[in-house]
Amino acid sequence: MIDEVFEATKSGIPFEPSSKPVPVEERARLLIDPGFGKVFTDHMAMIEYDEQDGWHDARVTARHAFTMDPASPVLHYAQEIFEGMKAYRRPNGGAALFRPDANARRFAKSAIRMAMPPLPEEMFLESVRAMVRADREWIPETEEGSLYLRPFMIANGSFLGMRSSTQFIYAVIASSVGSYFKGSSPTVSVWVTREYVRAAPGGTGEAKCGGNYAGSLVAQGEAIRQGCDQVVFLDAIERRWVEELGGMNVFFVFEDGSVQTPPLDGTILHGVTRDSLITLARDMGLTVREEPYSIEQWKADAESGRLREAFACGTAAVVTPIGRVKQADGEFLIGGEQTGRITSRLRSALVDIQRGAAPDPHGWVQLVD
Ligand SMILES: Cc1ncc(COP(=O)(O)O)c(C=O)c1O
After folding, report:
1. Ligand 1 center from residue 82 Cα (angstroms)
2. Alpha helix locations (H) across the chain?
3. Total-model pTM
4. Number of H helices, E strands in the chain
5. Which end of the chain is more exposed for a tag (fewer CB within 10 A), N or C?
6. pLDDT for residue 5
7. Does the beta carbon of 272 sit less than 6 angstroms from any atom of ligand 1?
8. Residues of the chain above pLDDT 70, percent
9. How far apart are alpha carbons 38 and 120 in whole angstroms?
């Protein structure tokens, strides 16, 4: 069945254009300073699933509200997964996606972890391409602007029993975005939570499922109350190994120019940006280690000067330097709260490929025509 649907969609998902698109002048006004995740486009993609028909009824239509039964499992048991990826304007006016195949693979893995039917990767790719085609005018022309695509899958149906659903909705919405962090400082500050953990071995940490994020909000709230931008999570067992931020992976840069990031041990999201930066750093001849790093070591190295830079990375945050680390017993600074040289080089190397300002030696960019 899945193959039949794919046959029907690979030459293009049916497109029913919105009969009430946002007027051009209004859209232009919204795109001047869209912020993050507040400005939505005219359309959405949808594909439905049930046991009998498999994935079916793919379409791109006007963005609209869902009607759901109040006993839909997603509302009770959070059987939900999502992805986050960006489309960029090309220098020649076209649009391109960055490593969408990596998001498609991760989405399928998240689905399996959450007992959901994996969406065939080619259907995922076709749905995001179709959305970029439908709403490409929504990509801001600003330097940091892009179209953030949010594919997601929810369990639908009407029952309260503890089992996986047999009905699912996959959809893609899109949001015109600028930069994620708005502050005037070149760096962000992070709060190391001791009270909360994000993920434990055997849990859902490496799946991109809504529950991980719901569980991290209280810790993010703690960070904000502490005057910080983001929360850092430590491992669940020893409560000392740095894992990741609420929605970003983390890297450390040392005085010898080497780079380190926590290993993918089952509790950390396999970030596409993380993977890309490891490759780019190695291309630059830097030594990259995927090894555990403790919070005590982070503090000691920052204070001794062995650690020169630290940064957070992700689709939304791109590469954002970390300047200040706060925890219950005090805080320490990194690199004089300025953007470090290697952070800056890595960021430019990545962004230039994403935006078509530099060659793409790894074939990461997929043009959407
Ligand atoms: C928990 C978490 N870690 C890391 C990342 C970075 O992943 P990516 O680079 O694929 O956006 C994200 C963002 O999606 C995230 O939510």
Report:
1. 11
2. 2-9, 24-30, 73-77, 100-113, 121-135, 210-225, 272-283, 295-304, 341-354
3. 0.95
4. 9, 18
5. C
6. 44
7. yes
8. 97
9. 29
CA of 277 to the centre of ligand 1 (A): 13
Most ligand 1 atoms within 8 A of CB, residue of 80, 220, 315 to mutate: 315
Hey, what are 162's tokens? 């503890």
Per-residue pLDDT, 11: 44
Phi, psi dihedrals of residue 11, rounded to the nearest 5°: -90, 10
Residues 6+ apart with CB under 8 A from 34: 140, 145, 175, 176, 177, 178
The answer, yes or no, to whether any atom of ligand 1 lies below 6 A from the CB of 247, is yes
Cβ density class 16-54: b for 16+ within 10 Å, e for less: eebeebbeeeebeebbeebebeebbbbbbbbbbbbeeee
Higher pLDDT, 5 or 209: 209
Residue with the nearest Cα to atom 7 of ligand 1?
271
- Ligand 1 centre distance from Cα of residue 223 (Å): 18
The answer to whether residues 291 and 263 touch, using CB atoms and an 8 Å cutoff, is: yes
- Is the shortest distance between the CB of 230 and ligand 1 below 6 Å? no
Q: Is 248 in the pocket of ligand 1 (CB under 6 A)?
A: yes
Q: What are the tens digits of pLDDT across the range 195-228?
A: 999 999 999 999 999 999 999 999 999 999 999 9
pLDDT digits (tens, 9 = 90+) for 287-342: 999 999 999 999 999 999 999 999 999 999 999 999 999 999 999 999 999 999 99
User: Does the C-beta of 269 come closer than 6 Å to ligand 1?
Assistant: yes
